[in-house]
């Protein structure tokens, strides 16, 4: 599995543990989603793959999985921001047969000497595939 690589971001091997903390190897977890060989079947799996895209600096994947109604024209990801862990706090709907879903998560990061947590409740919709819409609340 070969993915585009952005300078300054980590490169993941197929047998590396997936950054989304599922416990599965990258090639069996978020790797196929980022490679474009399959679409995430649930909102939470899309959330996990988007987190992994932030870890590896895959702005193209982030834009492709962002709903057109709220998607920015470009993303400038900073390789100095290092994502350390993802915790899924809760989910509402978002299954393979649902049209909408909500995922609340906490993502820990390091930015130089600063440490922080991005805590967000995200809204997702499924049309042709699951897409991130926006943060709510």
From TrEMBL:
Residues 42-135 form the YchJ-like middle NTF2-like domain. InterPro entries: NTF2-like_dom_sf, SEC_C_motif, YchJ-like, YchJ-like_M. Pfam families: SEC-C, YchJ_M-like. It comes from the Bacteria. Gene3D superfamilies: 3.10.450.50. Belongs to the UPF0225 family. This is UPF0225 protein ACFPER_17240.
């Amino acid at each position: 599995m070969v993915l585009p690589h952005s300078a300054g971001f980590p490169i993941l091997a197929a047998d590396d543990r997936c950054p989304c903390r599922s416990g599965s190897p990258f090639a069996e977890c978020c790797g196929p989603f980022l490679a474009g060989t399959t679409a995430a079947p649930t909102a939470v799996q899309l959330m996990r793959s988007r987190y992994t895209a932030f870890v590896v600096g895959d702005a193209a994947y982030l834009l492709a999985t962002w709903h057109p109604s709220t998607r920015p024209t470009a993303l400038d990801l900073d390789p100095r921001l290092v994502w350390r862990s993802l915790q899924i706090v809760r989910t509402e709907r978002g299954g393979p047969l649902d049209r909408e879903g909500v995922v609340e998560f906490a993502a820990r990061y390091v930015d130089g000497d600063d440490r922080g947590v991005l805590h967000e409740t995200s809204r997702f919709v499924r049309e042709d595939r699951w897409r991130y819409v926006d943060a709510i609340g």
